[in-house]
Every structure is written in C-alpha cells, then in structure tokens.
Amino acid sequence: MRFPLRLRLRHVPGRLATGVFILDSGLGKRGADQQTAETLHGMAANAYPFLGAVDPKTFVRLLSAGEMTLGTMLLLPVVPTAVAGGALAAFSAGLVGLYARTPGMRRDGSVFPTAQGIVLAKDVWLFGLGLGLLIDGLTERG
Asked: Which of 1, 29, 53, 62 is most buried by a 10 A CB count?
C-alpha cells in the first residue's frame, strides 16, 4: 500500500524549526525537579485556574508528553499539514493566553510585552505559523 506524501516543500522550514524546538522543550521537561514543576505549574494555574487541581509533577509530565507529541507531529511528513497546523495553533493559543493573563507580561494598556513578557510574547509566532499551516492544509487542492 502506498501513502501519498502531502507535505509541500514550503511547509518544511516552519515545521522543521518549530518541531525541533518544541520537541526539545518537551524532552527538557521530562525529568523536571519539584521546584521546576511547581514554578511551571504555578504560572499555568495562575492563568488557567482549573489547572490548580492538577499535581505539579503530573502537570509537567503531561506538558512534556504533549510537547514531545506535538514536536514529533510537526517533524513527521506523514502527519497532514492541517493536522499538524491545527495542533500547533491549539497549543500556542494556550501559550498566548498565558501571556495575556499573566500580570507583568504586557505594558499597561497595551498588547505589547514588557522586557519580562518577551519570552511568552514570542509564542504569537507559533500561533501564526500554526494557523498558516492549518489554512494551507485545509485549502490545498488534491
């Protein structure tokens, strides 16, 4: 049985760069110590209060697995562009929400970041790339 490769050359740079970055981030969280888990969990729970009910170590384990899965999806050419793009858009929307909801990340009365907020504000590019891949994958002619 032959599976058609639907990945377009124009998708490779974005999927490769983003996939490697996110996969590495997930791999780096695999063995997170208690303090790191509590810090990451606290920041996420501050923005998304329902996460407060999740144990910090469990949260980081799930975050790590999610990042590794997403990174792998972006790197594997057999994963359709619309699927990889949709997953990236959903994941990065959560990161952009974290930026928007965390005090001190944005300048007063602005969507633009403070010096501390730049580390989270950059996730808007991931969101844009994810939407672009999703739209391209959905509108591509077979």
From this structure: 29
User: At 33, is the secondary structure helix, strand, or coil?
Assistant: coil
- The whole-angstrom separation of Cα 77 and Cα 5 is 7
What are the C-alpha distances in Å from 21 to residues 67, 97, 107?
A: 9, 20, 27
Structure tokens at 76: 């594997």
Domain spans of the chain?
Answer: 11-136
User: Tell me, what's the pLDDT at 1?
Assistant: 43
Is 140 in a helix, a strand, or coil? coil
Place of tokens 């999806």: 73
Q: Contact 92/133 with Cβ under 8 angstroms? A: no
The span from the CA of 100 to the CA of 106, in Å, is: 7
CB-CB contact of 41 with 60 (8 Å): yes
- Amino acid identity of 80? P
Q: What is the pTM of this model?
A: 0.89
pLDDT(120) > 90: no
